[in-house]
Specification:
The complex is a heterodimer of chains A (118) and B (117).
Chain A: E1 3-6, E2 10-12, E3 18-25, E4 33-39, E5 46-51, E6 58-60, E7 68-73, E8 78-83, E9 92-99, E10 105-108, E11 112-116
Chain B: E1 4-7, E2 10-13, E3 19-25, E4 30-31, E5 36-37, E6 39-44, E7 51-55, E8 59-60, E9 72-77, E10 80-85, E11 94-100, E12 107-108, E13 112-116
Parallel strand pairs in B: 2-13
Antiparallel strand pairs in B: 1-3, 3-10, 4-5, 6-7, 6-11, 7-8, 9-10, 11-12, 11-13
The chains are: A mainly beta (118), B mainly beta (117).
Chain lengths: 118, 117
């Protein structure tokens, strides 16, 4: 079954970091780019960046430059998204999403809720 | 950044009737060299991730086992786009988002909440 399975919910204090994983199954991870999109409670969708799992190259939204790092482990078909210096405004559901080559997203993970609270 | 603006913010339509959702981009998302429009539509139901409906502004997603029903259609070019549901079904209740993938950062509309009247 083709799917992206994400790690479970996380709670962090302001200033801390979080690392969310996204494991691909049913297809070869290195074939397609993976994007990260987040959604604050009751809000819309916000694109964070993209990683090419084949070579590891990344492009980040300027808003997150310096705070986000996307990496991959091809041996386990897993993508990681780490966000540092967390603040309350980072409370959101974080999604990984597959890109078949056109930069639209045909397959999404189930989402990971990250809560930032003191 | 390209700003995507949807209208209306919410919409109530009777079962079997047509639903129309609009999306406007702050600049053209038509790439002249290939004549392609870099616009997608997604449906999101409560507690679920978004689901791709349309890409290239009018191509219905069909790569998954359960393809997008043909009552969903996309149209438009340049800066003005429309998602149409020709005959609303109960399972179409959701929030709908447009997305431009013409340039980074890829951006989404604020969403349109579709309900049954």
């Amino acid at each position: 079954q083709v799917q992206l399975v994400q790690s479970g919910a996380e709670v962090r204090k302001p200033g801390a970091s979080v690392k969310v994983s996204c494991k691909a199954s049913g297809y070869t991870l290195t074939t397609y780019h993976i994007h990260w999109v987040r959604q604050a409670p009751g809000q819309g969708l916000e694109w964070m960046g993209v990683i090419n799992p084949s070579g590891g190259s990344t492009t980040y939204a300027q808003k997150f430059q310096g705070r986000v790092t996307m990496t991959r482990d091809t041996s386990t078909s897993t993508i990681y998204m780490e966000l540092t210096s967390l603040r309350s405004q980072d409370t959101a559901v974080y999604y990984c999403a597959r890109d078949l080559g056109g930069n639209w997203f045909d397959l999404w993970g189930q989402g990971t809720l990250v809560t930032v609270s003191s | 950044d390209i700003v995507m603006t949807q209208s209306p913010d919410s919409l109530a339509v009777s079962l079997g009737e047509r639903a129309t959702i609009n999306c406007k981009s702050s600049q053209s998302v038509l790439y002249s060299s290939n004549n392609r429009t870099y616009l997608a539509w997604y449906q999101q139901k409560p507690g679920q991730p978004p689901n791709l409906l349309i890409y290239w502004a009018s191509t219905r997603e069909s790569t998954r086992e359960s393809g997008v029903p043909d009552r969903f259609s996309g149209s438009g070019s340049g800066t003005d786009f429309t998602l149409t549901i020709s005959s609303l079904q109960a399972e179409d209740v959701a929030v709908y988002y447009c997305q431009q993938y013409y340039s980074t950062p890829y951006t989404f509309g604020q969403g349109t909440k579709l309900e049954i009247k």
